[in-house]
Amino acid sequence: MRQAGRYMSEYRALRERYSMLELCQTPDLAAEITLQPVRRLPVDAAIIFSDLLLPLQPLGLPFDFIKGEGPQVERPIRSEADIDALARFEPRERLAPVLEAIRLVKAELSGLVPLIGFAGAPFTLASYAIEGGHSDHYTRTKALMYGSPKAWHRLCALFADVAVDYLTAQVEAGADAVQLFDSWVGALSPADYREFVLPHSRRIFEGLAATTSVPTLHFGTGTATLLPAIAEAGGDVVGADWRIPLDDAWRLIGDDRAIQGNLDPALLLAPTDRLMAGADDVLRRAGGRPGHIFNLGHGILPGTPVEQVEALANHVHEAQIARK
């Protein structure tokens, strides 16, 4: 989860010279950042360096990253007319730098580890587009959901179609698996998720099944009450964060799905013995069952020592070898 980023000195050196958008939109730089953790850490896959908001700009929602505040959309959606003004686009043209970065990474990896692509899910994209940036309560987003449900579903259907096209293009470029990120969907109740989100996320996974054959992953945070519905929406693998024990999460997801998770990333800032005890608890709850992808419950936090990440990955590998 967020393998490349502010905790790596190699990344920070590039970030001092280039803006976030420049890094995302320059294939050579995005490929280099993708490969940095693969070179430094014993990880089992690479994740393409990009940002889930990139499709907003060609839709007609320009944005930028503001230091200390995160992404900000210049003209957030404020009316149904704003939704109607959004323009469908061809990701193979408008998001070509991401696809070229995937091709560069695949050539460099030479089969060493698989490469994961990703896209933002409709609710998360909609929340950024409507709020204009990060939100604690998603009041504008929910106001549109509740007050103009037809407009909401029209917006999310557009985001779903974009995600299918974009992820399909990533697979064509060489991605070995693709992940749908619904980072903020934990702000919803199970009933609201089923009414306002599930149909659109399901549309994405059904669309991918028709266009690709790669494994699909479905991730969100704060989703302990939503896991059965998220599994119902789709994905070969469902992510769980640290707010629910892994074995409980797996029961909710179902035995027919793989699970990804779910160590608290803050444990990487803890003493090593505490970190490894947390990792061992996750592994114990997985019980050696096939289909567990050991991962964090969300992204690596800034200030995390790289040595801790390396030690954790080695510890998990050693535990797996010992189990065999």
Strand count: 9
Query: Mean of the pLDDT scores?
Result: 96
Per CATH, the architecture is Alpha-Beta Barrel
The tally of structural domains comes to: 1
**Amino-to-carboxy terminus distance:** 26 Å
Question: How many alpha or pi helices?
Answer: 16
* Cα shape: globular
What fraction, in percent, of the residue positions are helical?
A: 40-55%
Largest sheet: 7 strands, parallel
Strand line-up in the sheet with most strands: 1-4-5-6-7-8-9
Taking Cα atoms only, what radius of gyration do you get, to the nearest Å? Answer: 19 Å
CATH class: Alpha Beta
What report would you give on this structure?
The structure is a single chain. With 324 residues, the chain is α/β, with parallel strands linked by helices. It has one domain: Alpha-Beta Barrel (TIM Barrel). 52% of the residues lie in helices and 13% in strands. The protein contains 16 helices and 9 strands. The strands form 2 sheets. Strands 1-4-5-6-7-8-9 form a 7-stranded parallel sheet. α8 packs across α10 (149-173) and α15 (272-286) runs parallel beside α16. The protein is globular.
Secondary-structure map:
Layout (H helix, E strand, L loop, with lengths): L8 H7 L4 H6 L1 H14 L5 E2 L8 H4 L3 E4 L3 E4 L6 H5 L6 H4 L1 H14 L5 E6 L1 H10 L7 H9 L1 H25 L3 E6 L7 H7 L1 H14 L4 E5 L6 H7 L3 E3 L6 H8 L4 E6 L8 H15 L5 E5 L9 H18 L1
Parallel strand pairs: 1-4, 4-5, 5-6, 6-7, 7-8, 8-9
Antiparallel strand pairs: 2-3
